[in-house]
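YM 10:42: Pheromone autoinducer 2 transporter sequence, as discussed on the call
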Amino acid sequence: MKVLRYLLIFLAVALFLVGAWYLSAIVMYIIISAVLALIGRPLADRLQRLKIKGKTFPSALAAAITLLTIWAVMITFFIVFIPLVIQEGQALSSINVNDVVENLKEPIQKVQNVYNEYTPNDEQRPLKEVASERLKSLLSISNITNVFSAITGALGNIFIALFSISFITFFFLKEKNMLTRFILLIVPTKWDSEALHAMLSIKKLLSRYFIGLVVQISLIFTGVTIGLSIVGIDFNHVMLIALFAALINVIPYIGPILGIIFGLTVGVATHLHLDFYNELMPLLGYMTIAFLIVQLMDNFLFQPLIFSNSVKAHPLEIFLVILTAGTLAGIGGMVLAIPSYTIIRVIAKEFFSKYRFVKKMTEKI
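YM 10:58: structure's back
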């Protein structure tokens, strides 16, 4: 009898996973809506506690105001930054590749000498020619157009999904126990108490985590903007570099490196008129110092406060989880590692706390 029960549970889980795979778009809408609801929950709860002439603030109105606030922030973000991205793309496409190569002639020649020393004569090729070809390909208007076409297509898909996500988010905000009630419907009655407590803990921890993540992105954006402005980079370039660095920083460990590489690349591309050794190299050095200062602040101040305190886990524990997730599922796994691990820890504490290992790993929750 037990074997049959386990078999049915296995089949139910398998069917659920297959259904989630085929309906991945809807599942993604629900996940995005849940994240937006977690971020907006503090505002919605605060509004619902308001009293208007002795009457409770309507939950539907609180949800609507919160949802409009979320979308207003996002729309403002696009209005401010999309023109900067377009302007930067146009500036990069107008760069004279021959001038770039000529300006970098001396360092390219030094690299060429090292390359020739370790490469057979029949395989040698002028690096100046290679650099010119690669830069023409990278900065060609067709490539930049393709990038913007891809972005436009992605935005089109987002707008198609906009209504669905807004609709689901509204009801998640309006009825904050909706997801909890759904979970209780599929959980055996004897586990109702544990499941309810687990859902409340997960909601609280993930809400703190995602809000903290927004704060972290804002702080990194502000730090990079201030640092590069002090260095002397033009404000339009600063805004784009800071935005990219802040958003890509969501990818643990790899993201900051990509942000620095992108920033230095834009720095080189937009300051080709400078002398390489006397002006451009010092500028890149100052930019690197600015990035490193912000990164140190993130590593020793922002991340411990946001990740360790929000999900109640040790920094080394977080590092190992992210490393494992990256090995198993790549960059996507690294991004989702902390929220997923938080959910697993809460469930383990509620249902498997009798085991010493689980009790030790979840004692801070």
